[in-house]
Amino acid sequence: MSQRTTVNPEVHFLDDVVNNIVTGRYTIPAFQRKYVWQKSNIIDLFDSIYKGFPIGAVLLWKTALKITKSIDNQLPKNDIEGLFVLDGQQRLTTLYKCLINRDFGLLWDLKFDLDKSIFFYEDDVDSMPDNFFSVKMALQTSDFLKESSRIYEKTKSDEYVEKCQFFANLVRKYKISVINLEGGGIDDAIEIFTRLNRTGIQIKPVDIIRALNYSNDNLSSFEKAYDKFLEVNEDFNFFSNSKDAYVEERSDYSDIFLKIIRISLGFPLYSEDDTMKLSDSIKSDNFERSIDNILNAYKKTLEFLIENKFYRYEQLPYVNLIYMIFVGFYGSLVDNRFINKYDLIYNLFASSVSGLPNVSPSGTEKILLYFKNGFDKSLLTKKMKQLLETDYFKDFCDKIEEGSFNSQSAHGKVLYNIVLKHCIDSDYVRIDKLCYPPMNVSKDKSIRNRLGNKRFFADELSEVDSGIYSANLASLESRERDLSTLSKCFFDSIRLAI
Questions:
Q1: With contact defined as beta carbons under 8 Å apart, do 342 and 495 qualify?
Q2: Tens digits of per-residue pLDDT, 245-264?
Q3: For the packed helices 221-236 and 253-264, what is the interaxial angle rounded to 10 degrees?
Q4: Closest CA to 253 of 333, 319, 317
Q5: pTM score, two decimals?
Q6: Rounded distance, CA 228 to CA 232, Å?
């Protein structure tokens, strides 16, 4: 690291933290996502503060990079002593908008019942009590005096005024843990973010690239491409929970997007401390011109996987298959040449059963070149050629008959794909009668990992209707033999196709 990153933990009073937001000292990096909290999250936060529970540390970063936007557009900009909020955006935005006396909207107009000691919203109760305290009146002295006077006029109770004072002091002097990071470059920051991710902080390399391409005036080419990428994922529903509001937080969307951008622009699939170079390349006209081809190739990739009955991301034997197939389509679009889908199918399954994608980063680059350049085997190492030329299809079927089985392995996912394809093509059983991962037929631990003890169907009747099995379903060996026969037929059809 060119400049050592220092970490300084501190403890600040809540009113000082909010004041740092108001003065523009705390700002939001452009890579941070939108505010997503609901009423229940806001109530839980203030309930924790009232009860003295910890609300988690706020992570701040001091850097010279100009990748900032304000929590509120009305706030002043402070470029001299600015600190970027890396973790704590939702909490700090909530504190600022709930505790500053401005009309930010109903979401931020939180009330506190001085008798019941609960937080609530006016539109969520049948009638407003006289002894409620408006949370946004707690910090500023003038606001507090107005609010406590209003409550006294309503109740004529000194006790409620004392409760107002107690509540306001408790909020103002609540202590928040603040971790200050200073120094280091952008790739150092990514390393820090990656380590912090293990404790739940979701800062990813794609967020940094987004920030480095951020513009206050208009949407960057990178942001436009990312939005279109998300639309493609939504259209194909390839990822689980794609309709979920929080899907971007929990999925591999951003990682996949950044990697297809990397290989499209000629960068290695895996990062090599080249984030600034990648960002500069993304800012170039070359990237702008490449967006349509990138998105078209990605669409073709998902279409191809779904055509071959890999309906969901979780069903892929290897994640790298996405990039291998993508670069094949992208290369054909850039070079304006025909890509043989039968060759692509053969290499998809040959790679899946041989373990070809499970290689080193340098080996991955050779495989991507192989897929990009029309399956030219001269680009592969001797060992890679052997993996594709050796009859791994036969080995796969032999292993099925041996009986051991791991449903989450690449082989397990390939076998499920074969079963799925057979049922769809033969119209024996509805897709909704299939299940993955498969269920155990028997609870006997001694045969738990036998393939013959696994059922890919919701019930035995559907299993019988599948047309896969020709022998007694109670026999582990016969079930395994029938699945092996099905796999042999499937792989023979692939060989015949090419």
A1: no
A2: 334 444 467 889 999 999 99
A3: 120
A4: 319
A5: 0.67
A6: 6
